[in-house]
Amino acid sequence: MSFSTESVSDDTLIITIGNTLDFRNADVFKETIQPPIEAGKRQFILDFSETDVLDSSGLGAIFSLYRRVAAHDGTVVFANTSEPVRVVVELTRTYKVFPQYDSVADARADLT
Known about the structure:
Helix 1 runs parallel beside helix 2 (about 55-70). The longest helix has 15 residues, at about 55-70. The chain is of the alpha/beta class. Helix content is about 40%, strand content about 20%. It contains four helices and seven strands; from the N terminus they run E-E-E-H-E-E-H-E-H-E-H.
């Protein structure tokens, strides 16, 4: 239940969420994002291409990230949202907060 990260610039990080972001690993997600935030990352691209489960705890962890980087003019965006994630995003209307991109490449192009 770990997350993979890829630094694409001094201030941008891609996080591949993997199969789940839920109550079982939301704290691990928060621990994963702590060092990059402290290192100055402000642009986060969350890749949901492999994600089958996103629950309220996972959304809470994402909002925690958002609050931390938004205070420093940062951004959190979603890329490759799988169908299960898309349903959650629509039901919770989080698309109003987190821009959605069809691919990580599209998100990177828009953020740089």
